[in-house]
């Protein structure tokens, strides 16, 4: 079972080959001897493991090892997590989804185009909260962490697309967002669409309060820049974006 849906559309052409087979032996109490048998506490089981040779034949029969049991347990654990609904898609995959990993504390990677958003600031910055243009962005989130980057242009990003520092406050140089006291409510039942929407809301509905990355988030002072952007309809000035040393591929 493969639950890592990284680069989703490419996986339809992946060929899977058998590499392991398990044979279950049972000793059954004669008192429970009947057809349609299901193992219970009165049943002894023995599991034999076989490797699969190059020609597809079972070879190297041996008792199921501890490491094999651990690997098998992880497979069933992943299946159980998917059954819980975490990052499952109820409809078609979102058009702006770039990568998806549904394993334990897995992540989603997506982008948003240039848009107008309401942006909030703490009073001490002297920046009025209000609508402003924001650049295209790349988002990478797990159940409890968020990283964001900015993009230039309007095209959908690919692996070689350069990433820029997100031109906001409360963001570390590596893109990690300081969420402060935001109450993050993402559970094992959160679907993919809900997951993406919630993280965008958490980010834009929190109050930007301080600069973590110094003034290097934008070419001009970030606080001074946002004082000039609030309430304007003009696109975000892309010449203010500062390039990182990363491309989108580094987030996959």
UniProtKB/TrEMBL annotation:
Q: What InterPro entries does this protein map onto?
A: Prok-E2_D
One Pfam family, short name please?
Prok-E2_D
- Which top-rank group of organisms is this from? Bacteria
Record's protein name: PRTRC system protein B
């Amino acid at each position: 079972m493969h639950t890592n849906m990284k680069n989703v559309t490419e996986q339809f052409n992946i060929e899977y080959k058998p590499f392991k087979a398990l044979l279950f032996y049972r000793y059954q109490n004669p008192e429970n001897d009947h057809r349609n048998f299901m193992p219970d506490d009165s049943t002894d089981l023995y599991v034999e493991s076989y490797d699969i040779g190059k020609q597809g034949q079972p070879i190297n029969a041996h008792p199921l090892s501890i490491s094999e049991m651990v690997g098998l347990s992880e497979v069933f654990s992943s299946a159980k997590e998917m059954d819980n609904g975490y990052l499952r898609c109820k409809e078609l995959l979102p058009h702006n989804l770039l990568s998806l990993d549904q394993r334990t504390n897995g992540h989603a990677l997506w982008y948003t185009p240039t848009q107008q958003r309401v942006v909030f600031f703490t009073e001490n910055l002297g920046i009025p909260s209000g609508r402003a243009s924001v650049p295209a962005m790349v988002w990478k989130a797990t159940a409890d962490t968020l990283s964001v980057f900015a993009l230039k242009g309007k095209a959908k990003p690919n692996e070689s697309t350069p990433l820029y520092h997100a031109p906001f406050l409360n963001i570390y140089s590596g893109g990690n967002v300081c969420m402060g006291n935001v109450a993050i409510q993402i559970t094992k039942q959160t679907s993919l669409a809900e997951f993406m929407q919630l993280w965008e809301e958490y980010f834009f509905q929190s109050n930007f309060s301080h600069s973590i990355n110094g003034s290097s988030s934008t070419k001009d002072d970030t606080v001074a820049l946002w004082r000039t952007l609030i309430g304007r309809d003009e696109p975000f000035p892309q010449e203010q974006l500062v390039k990182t040393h990363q491309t989108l591929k580094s987030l996959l």
